[in-house]
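Lab notebook: predicted structure, single chain.

Context: the supervisor wants predicted structures on file for every construct in the current expression panel, including those that have not yet been purified. This is the next one on the list. No modifications to the sequence; it matches the entry in the shared construct table.
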Amino acid sequence: MVKNKVSLFAHVLILLTSMYSAEEEVCYLVILDARNIGSENPVVARLQLPAKYAFPYGFHGLWTDVDIKRT
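Prediction complete. Output recorded below exactly as produced.
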């Protein structure tokens, strides 16, 4: 039993990113250990996405706290 759930994840730092393999023609959701970026293998998991969720070349994201309205 975990008495303090906050302390269980207090030192976990992850980074989610997408990866497209042109050789395999599939997309992956990749989970990285943010503390090990730059090391030999920071990959925690690599999940293959179904084809209907494939990211196109040039896929970009934008996160902001500003409400952006399209005109």
